[in-house]
């Protein structure tokens, strides 16, 4: 099978959409398929392009058997709503030439576009028609809904126009997939027919991330001992995460339980403000994003995972970090209203807190800190849930089967004889 992936995010970026684009491409190569990727230079979550990738023109490279073409883009240092639109528009323009070239010369069986960025998706659909391939749009974020519901954009006329454009784009693809049941419902409401729609979750390597001893080298480096309770957040640091609520919760738990420590691991445009907010607090620790090889150790460092979230973001995205939290067999405190997708995913494996309530977050953390048996119970269910719903190998196999079933020119074939440990 030949697959052309079009998406703005790819390795060496470490978290979120880049991780899944990269792992999908590399897993398909390991299973005997040819994969080409048109993407941009790395920039996320710091919103800055590393020196080695600061080129004004196109660059090609091969990573782990995947041939990449990187198209130049505009990356704003402080991304606002308008600047984000310009950022995505720049990739939509600069990716035209490589996408068309690969469509004609590589002749893919499937053209797989990933949103974000939705602005570049019409090009992928057109390229698929140009070469007779199946066109597939995978929606990681409901970008238009998120931009307005989170207040990044506000003009009502622009919203109507963008929603109309979104509906037009969605109709152009043979297949549309997304990562959670609530997002599936939203796409059906936007007019995507059920027979064209698929649920493809983000995944976790349940063999690599598993139940481990909590006394890690990271904990030792932070000067934390066996009696200390570590509350961990790991991921991007932007305003939509609501991480200031974690700092507020730390102020509330300090007097009741001084051995509770908060570790915020990640980078992003909001980190400096968070560090200033936590200045002078010995119970709040910051770490840079850890290399992928250290992620299992990082997640094992936690006694409790925390996932703050703004109420407006409910059902617009299913945070990818959730799968790793589950796999690490630790309980999760999630800010989500009952009935939302995140709440349904977490129920029985963690505690729910109303979005925006720092007091509720502090109370949930104190409850778990005082009850090791409850932590074990919730963590055990979290691990079982990861194995049942989020296993990487099972989901990659599902994607491969769907590609074969939908492909216009793809012969049905058995699995390539590849050791599963490599997938």
Structure summarized in a few sentences:
By secondary structure, the chain is an alpha/beta fold. The chain is built from 16 helices and 14 strands. Helix content is 40%, strand content 16%.
Q: Any chance you could write out the topology, listing elements then pairs?
A:
Elements: E1 2-6, H1 17-30, E2 34-39, E3 59-63, E4 66-70, H2 81-94, H3 96-105, E5 110-115, H4 121-131, E6 134-139, H5 143-149, H6 156-171, E7 175-178, H7 181-189, E8 197-199, H8 217-221, E9 229-234, H9 244-256, E10 260-265, H10 271-277, E11 284-287, H11 295-301, E12 304-307, H12 321-327, E13 332-335, H13 341-346, E14 350-353, H14 358-369, H15 372-389, H16 392-406
Parallel strand pairs: 1-2, 1-5, 2-4, 5-6, 6-7, 7-8, 9-10, 9-12, 10-11, 12-13, 13-14
Antiparallel strand pairs: 3-4
Helix pairs in contact: 3-4, 9-14, 12-15
Q: What is the strand tally?
A: 14
User: Which structural class do you get from the secondary structure elements?
Assistant: alpha/beta
Total separate domains: 2
Briefly, what CATH class of the largest domain?
A: Alpha Beta
Overall CATH architecture of the largest domain: 3-Layer(aba) Sandwich
Helix content percent band: 40-55%
Tell me the strand percentage band.
15-25%
H-E order: EHEEEHHEHEHHEHEHEHEHEHEHEHEHHH
- Strand arrangement across the biggest beta sheet: 3-4-2-1-5-6-7-8
Question: Residue-averaged pLDDT, rounded?
Answer: 90
- Alpha carbon gyration radius: 21 Å
Find the CATH topology of the largest domain: Rossmann fold
Biggest sheet details: 8 strands, mixed
Shape: globular
InterPro entries: Glyco_trans_1 (IPR001296), Glyco_trans_4-like_N (IPR028098), Glycosyltransferase_grp1 (IPR050194)
Protein name: WcaI family glycosyltransferase
Pfam family, one: Glycos_transf_1
């Amino acid at each position: 099978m030949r697959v052309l992936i079009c998406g703005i995010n790819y390795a060496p970026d470490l978290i979120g959409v880049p991780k899944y684009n990269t792992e999908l491409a590399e897993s398909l190569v390991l299973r005997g398929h040819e994969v080409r990727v048109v993407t941009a230079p790395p920039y996320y979550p710091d919103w800055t392009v590393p020196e080695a990738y600061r080129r004004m023109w196109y660059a090609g490279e091969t990573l782990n058997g995947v041939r990449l073409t990187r198209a130049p883009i505009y990356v704003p240092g402080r991304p606002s709503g308008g600047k984000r639109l310009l950022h995505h528009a720049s990739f939509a323009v600069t990716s035209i030439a490589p996408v068309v070239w690969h469509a004609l010369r590589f002749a893919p069986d499937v053209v797989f576009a990933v949103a974000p960025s939705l602005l570049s998706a019409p090009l992928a659909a057109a390229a698929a028609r140009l070469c007779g391939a199946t066109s597939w749009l995978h929606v990681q974020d409901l970008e238009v809904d998120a931009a307005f519901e989170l207040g990044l954009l506000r003009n009502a006329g622009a919203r109507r126009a963008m929603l109309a454009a979104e509906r037009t784009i969605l109709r152009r693809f043979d297949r549309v997939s997304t990562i959670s049941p609530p997002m599936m419902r939203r796409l059906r409401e936007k007019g995507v027919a059920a027979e064209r729609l698929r649920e493809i979750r983000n995944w976790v390597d349940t063999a690599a991330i598993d139940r481990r001893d909590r006394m890690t080298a990271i904990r030792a480096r932070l000067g934390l001992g066996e009696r200390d309770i570590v509350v961990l957040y790991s991921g991007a640091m932007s305003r939509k995460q609501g991480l200031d609520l974690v700092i507020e919760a730390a102020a509330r738990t300090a007097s009741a339980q001084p051995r509770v420590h908060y570790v915020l691991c990640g980078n992003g445009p909001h980190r400096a403000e968070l560090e200033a907010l936590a200045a002078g607090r010995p119970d709040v620790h910051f770490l840079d994003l850890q290399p992928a090889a250290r992620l299992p150790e990082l997640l094992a460092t936690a006694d409790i995972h925390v996932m703050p979230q703004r109420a407006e973001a409910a059902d617009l995205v299913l945070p990818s970090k959730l799968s790793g939290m589950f796999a690490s067999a630790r309980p999760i405190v999630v800010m989500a209203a009952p009935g939302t997708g995140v709440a349904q995913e977490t129920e029985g494996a963690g505690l729910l807190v109303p979005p925006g309530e720092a007091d509720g977050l502090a109370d949930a953390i104190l409850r778990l800190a005082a009850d090791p048996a409850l932590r074990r119970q919730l963590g055990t269910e979290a691990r079982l849930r990861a194995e049942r719903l989020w296993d990487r190998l099972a989901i990659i196999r599902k994607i491969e089967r769907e590609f074969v079933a939908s492909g216009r020119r793809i012969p049905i074939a058995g699995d390539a004889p590849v050791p599963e440990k490599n997938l």
